[in-house]
Design goal:
The structure holds 2 protein chains of 2 kinds.
Chain A lengths: L28 H6 L9 H11 L1 H23 L9 E2 L2 E2 L13 H8 L18 H37 L1 H16 L2 H15 L7 H5 L1 H13 L1 H15 L3 H8 L4 H12 L1 H24 L11 H7 L9 H28 L6
Antiparallel strand pairs in A: 1-2
Helix pairs in contact in A: 2-15, 3-5, 3-15, 5-6, 5-9, 5-10, 5-13, 5-15, 6-10, 7-9, 11-12, 13-14, 13-15, 14-15
Chain B lengths: L3 E7 L2 E7 L2 H9 L6 H36 L1 H43 L14 H10 L6 H13 L13 H36 L4 H13 L4 H15 L14 H27 L2 H9 L3 H19 L1 H18 L5 H11 L2 H29 L7
Helix pairs in contact in B: 3-14, 6-7, 6-9, 6-12, 7-9, 8-9, 8-12, 9-11, 9-12, 10-11, 12-13, 12-14, 13-14
The chains are: A mainly alpha, B mainly alpha.
Amino acid sequence: MDNFDPNKTPKKQVLSAQIDLSKFEKATEDEKRQQDVMSQSTSFFKDGMRKLFKNPLAVASIIVLVAIIITIIVAPMIVPYGYEEILSVNGKRDKGAKNLAPFTYSKAEQKFIDEGGTRFPHIMGTDEQCRDYFIRVIYGARISLVIGFFASIIVLIIGMIIGSISGYAGGKVDLILMRIVDIIYSLPDMLVIILLATVLNQVLVFKSGSALAALGSNMVSMFIVFGLLYWVGMARLIRGQILSIKENEYVLAARSIGAKPGWIIRKHILPNCLSVIIVSTALQIPSAIFTESYLSFIGLGVNAPMPSLGSLANSARQGLQTYPYKLIFPALMICLIVLSLNLLGDGLRDAFDPKLKR
Amino acid sequence: MEKTCVSVQYGQMQRWEFVDNLQKCEEFERFLPALPAKLQTQCLENVARQRKRIDQTEAFRYNKQNICTLRKTWMQVGKENKQKGVKNVGRYIVKRILLAILTVLIICAITFFVMNAIPGGPFNREKALSAATIEALNKRYNLDKPVGEQFILYMKNLLHGDFGVSLKNGRDIKEIIAESFPISAKLGLMAIGVALVCGTVFGSLAALMRNKWPDRVIVFFSTLFTAVPSFVLATLLLLVFCIKLAWFPVWDPNNPNFLLPVLALASYPMAYTTRLAKSSMLDALSQDYVRTAKAKGVAKWKVIFKHALRNSLLPIITYAGPQIAYIITGSMVIETIFTVGGIGSKFVSAISNRDYTMIMATTIFLATLMVAANVICDLLYKVVDPRIKFD
């Protein structure tokens, strides 16, 4: 093939299957259009979202969650009471506003309204320290959601880093990391959390006015505890994923052109185990909220006077017989949040992880 | 035999040498010194590459010949593996127990050192004690020694069953545990029994009546109860059945009624087991052996109980360990709410009273219990399912 020219049609051989172009005619524009791919090309993420929005339970839980989040953000702007503010009328402390039922006013407030003043209704009544209960429940839900969200982010980051190092490096690094994971995994997590929370509450002392002090030592200790203990499950999961993805041809190809391990992990491996990461993070949030409310219930949660749903439910136990609604409201809020997050997690799993069956 | 070619470059000219075996390659090497020195390395590289390829094909051919003989020894290898398997079971059990002991030791260490990190000694009271008294107390409880030595002393005492003395009321912790643990154990065992049995029954029922109303009802309630924290359920049960309806007494230590605490404690594990049992039952029902049994004309109940249910129980056993851990921690709140005088409620009151020795002792005790339960579940699972490989 010394005189081969790719731009010229080679001379037809006798027995060749080469097409005689003169026997064909060009397709018209109309015919060309018929061959167009009608459906739009879709990415993995778009396809997953489409499946998610077809699932009625998931859509309902998204709506509930969005409603809760909007309430949490908007309500403190509308309701004129603070979560630790003791009610007062005309600058005078209102001593009668103790343990009011929902949508009722104390005598002083009633008098104030009769004289022509306007008073924002106590949607969920007031508590035993004359504070508006609705705003406390709202702040409690805020705290619970924030803790759930950030705790799972912390877990995700630590678990992802250690899991991908362990899975990709293999060998001795993997062995050592997995032994550590095994040991932390076999620790009874709830007991260690209680222990650490008890101690950290005493040990952590922050300068007043700093950001950490605003969070309170209990909340910081809760994050520390989550970061220390809960990453192991995520690390194991990601390691397992990486071990299987690592064997794929595109990783081999990337390695053969000299891509660095960090780049391969970021560009090839992590996007491929994204579905597992999304699903387990979504399911981590409700479990973190559960843990937080549990800790608050036994008195190790967020510092007073900051309310949390668990501590509100706990303090409602004292006057349970006469004021059952004080338990019902925070309890309903926890159930609603956890239920919708669970359903959303299930929906995400069905949409993004076709391999995982119910 | 495969022919391979080696290219040699003589100045501007390129020559192809066909080499059909290793020997010719060596011959080629022999006239190599005659070549210009510049080209020698290049040629050698080429030859090395060829030789590697030849080696690989040789190895492949060798393997192919041996596959037949390998097949003959297959049975023998299987027998050997079986013998090895028995050995591996023993090794696995020993390994698992060693890991458990290590875990308990780590828990003891964490508990001890973490508790030691709390600022202020145990004798810092509102009413200040005299320096001499504190010194005497420190000496009495070995608090004047270095931390490491204290830890060893503490561990020695633990091995002798001596958990120390409660800081709050000065009682021997061993006694407190001995009197409160049986109540908790009874409560916990009842709860785990109810959770596993009812969960399996409901889950299997839902799987057998898939997409009919019993399935819908069961799935609805199991989803709902995984979202209700146990303390909320317990408080509601207490409110409705003990206070409003007064069907049950709140808690009478002489005539205890376990129904409500067990219900509250078992709700979450039950809901979880139901979901698990449903999916594993569905999985088992779609297996080939179930279809074969049906095709043979085996009675329907026999297929369900003998083939499907037995196999669907495996994942439930796997999750029994974590559920026991859940029951132990859950019992703390439930016991507090129902004022059951179990070890859980003692733990919670120790936390709120800052009774550090009590917290330490109870943590170590409960943690050991959980680790032991996990080991037993793991071993049970491996015994029940012979398909599991021992590593």
